[in-house]
Amino acid sequence: MRKLIIALSAVLCLAACSQEEPQQTKKADKVNSGEIIISYSGIENADRFHEFTKRIAKYEKDEIRMMQRTIEGDPIYQNVQFDGQDYQYTHDSREDAYGTKEVTKDKCKDFRVIETNTETTVLLEKCQKRGSIELFYLRYDTLKEDRFDFALKYGENLEKMIDTNKTELPNKEKNIVFKNLVYIDFLKDKKLKKSCPDSNIQYELTVWINGGKRHYKWFECDSGKDAKDLTGVADTIIKVLEHK
Fold first, then answer.
1. What Cα–Cα distance (Å) separates residue 192 from each residue in 46, 51, 82, 208, 223?
2. Which of 61, 77, 93, 148 has its Cβ near the most Cβ atoms within 10 Å?
3. What are the phi and psi torsion angles at 88 (to 5°)?
């Protein structure tokens, strides 16, 4: 499991030092609809994960499938099925060239999400064979990075601006923004297509992460999941500054 690149520590060289597509994405993904993907830069389809946690809290049956990549770029799959009482866990490493190339299963009693202002750890606990299983781990601690800044312009004519390069923001508030970016896998290319009039509210967001940089521009009424995710990040930034 430790071969999996889940935290953001590898992001920074990849984003800044190379224009080449990261190794983890070079292999063809066998991604199913609704599959939760954990990468070196964050989590994709996090809304499906949150839906799962809400359903199991109500003891409703549900199932999620997660895919993570090793350093070499090989996919490892995890499946968690909740039957209303217990969790059936499946770990599939058959496509991992350096792994055991087998499917293992376990049965667990508890599912736990541990969240702080710097990291999220997701666990299955009270398992019959392994005791505790770490499903994934995400870190969004700005103090661990050489640099994390962002500039958001918004309004009908981009007349409003929030820029941490000019206005200092406490790390606690920066971590909130960082977390929201990690939960949309912000380093992954976004599909943003203008689909509404220029008179609508528009956004322009630039993020600096160590030596790397990402820039996005979109309209509030643009269709598509990526635009909606980024609007959610923009709303978070605005709220964070309002309650500073």
1. 19, 24, 35, 20, 8
2. 148
3. -95, 120
DSSP 110-161: EEEEEE-SSEEEEEEEEETTTEEEEEEEEE--GGGSS-EEEEEEEETTS-EE
pLDDT reported for residue 32 = 56
Residue with tokens 């996005």: 216
What is the side-by-side order of every strand in the sheet holding 36-39? Answer: 42-44, 36-39, 62-69, 75-82, 87-92, 103-115, 119-127, 131-139
CA distance 189 to 206: 14
Q: What is the pTM of this model?
A: 0.82
The residues spanned by each domain of the chain are 8-139, 142-242
Which residue in the block uniquely carries the two structure tokens 């199913």?
Answer: 32
Taking the chain (244 residues) in consecutive chunks of 10 residues, what is each chunk's mean pLDDT? Answer: 42 39 41 78 93 97 95 92 98 92 96 96 97 96 96 94 93 95 92 76 95 92 90 95 72
Instruction: Give the pLDDT score at 33.
Output: 60
Spatial separation of the C-alpha atoms in residues 72 and 3, rounded to whole Å:
9
End-to-end CA distance of the chain: 39
The angle at the Cα of 200, spanning 195 to 205, to the nearest 5 degrees, equals 80
CA 190 to chain centroid: 13
